[in-house]
C-alpha cells in the first residue's frame, strides 16, 4: 500500500521539520503537541491539497502559539522556517476558517512588552510603565487592529524616554522586528492619547 507508506513518510518529514522549528523558536512541549494535533486534523480534513507541509506546519505553529498565549509573531516563524510570511498567512487564514479549534485569538500587546524589555535589558520600572501605557490605550481602543508587537515596541520606547534610560529606538526596532518608522508612527499615536489624558 504505497499511499499509506507515502503518508507515513510525509508525516515523519513533517515532524522532523516541526522539531527544527521547536529548537529555533524555543517552543514549549505543549505548543509542539498542539501544532502536531492541528496538523493531523488539517490532513484528515484534506484542507491542504497543493500546499507544502512546511507552510502548513508554520501556520499551525502560529495558531498553537496564539491558542496557548506563547508570544511568537508570524515574522518569527517565517524567519525560523525560511518561508515567506505571505505564504504562511494564506494557509493560516484557510485553517482558521476550516478548523473548529481555531477561533481567531488575538494577542494583547502587553504580552510582547516582556519580550522586548528582556531583549534590550530595561529596568523593571520601564516594563511596568510600558504595560500601564498600553493598558491605558487599550481601554480607549487605540490598540485594536494594530500589530501588537508594534504597539508594544512603541510603549517600551515611550517608557524608556519617560525614565531617561539610554536605549535607542533602533535597538528596540531590532529587538521587536518592527521598523523604526512604524515605531515612530505608533509612538505619535500613543502620545496623542496621553496628551488628552493630561
Uncertain stretches of 5 or more adjacent residues: none
Largest sheet: none
- Number of distinct beta strands: 0
Rounded radius of gyration (Å): 19 Å
- The dominant shape is elongated
Structural class: mainly alpha
Classify the beta-strand content into a percent band: under 5%
> Mean of residue pLDDT?
87
Task: Report the order of strands and helices.
Answer: HHHHHHHHHH
Straight-line N-to-C gap: 72 Å
Q: Which oligomeric state applies?
A: single chain
Helices, by number, come to 10
Q: What level of helicity do the residues show?
A: over 70%
Question: How would you sum up this structure, described in words?
Answer:
This protein has helices at residues 2-25, 29-44, 53-67, 74-81, 85-98, 110-120, 124-139, 148-162, 169-176, 180-197. It has 198 residues and is mostly helical. The termini are far apart. The protein has ten helices and no strands. The protein is elongated, with a radius of gyration of 19 Å. Helix 1 (2-25) packs across helix 3. Helices cover 73% and strands 0% of the residues. The mean pLDDT is 87.
What's this, in brief?
This protein is mainly alpha-helical.
List the helices and strands and how they pair.
Blueprint: H1 2-25, H2 29-44, H3 53-67, H4 74-81, H5 85-98, H6 110-120, H7 124-139, H8 148-162, H9 169-176, H10 180-197
Amino acid at each position: 500500500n504505497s499511499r499509506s507508506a507515502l503518508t507515513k513518510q510525509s508525516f515523519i518529514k513533517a515532524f522532523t521539520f516541526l522539531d527544527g522549528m521547536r529548537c529555533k523558536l524555543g517552543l514549549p512541549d505543549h505548543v509542539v503537541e498542539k501544532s502536531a494535533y492541528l496538523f493531523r486534523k488539517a490532513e484528515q480534513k484534506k484542507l491542504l491539497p497543493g500546499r507544502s507541509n512546511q507552510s502548513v506546519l508554520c501556520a499551525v505553529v502560529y495558531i498553537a502559539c496564539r491558542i496557548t498565549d506563547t508570544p511568537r509573531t508570524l515574522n518569527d516563524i517565517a524567519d525560523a522556517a525560511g518561508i515567506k510570511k505571505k505564504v504562511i498567512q494564506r494557509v493560516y487564514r484557510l485553517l482558521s476558517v476550516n478548523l473548529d479549534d481555531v477561533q481567531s485569538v488575538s494577542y494583547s500587546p502587553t504580552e510582547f512588552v516582556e519580550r522586548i524589555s528582556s531583549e534590550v535589558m530595561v529596568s523593571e520600572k520601564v516594563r511596568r510603565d510600558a504595560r500601564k501605557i498600553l493598558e491605558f490605550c487599550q481601554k480607549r481602543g487605540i490598540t485594536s487592529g494594530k500589530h501588537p508587537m508594534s504597539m508594544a515596541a512603541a510603549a517600551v520606547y515611550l517608557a524608556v524616554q519617560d525614565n531617561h534610560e539610554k536605549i535607542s529606538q533602533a535597538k528596540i526596532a531590532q529587538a521587536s522586528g518592527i521598523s523604526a518608522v512604524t515605531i515612530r508612527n505608533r509612538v505619535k499615536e500613543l502620545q496623542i492619547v496621553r496628551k488628552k489624558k493630561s
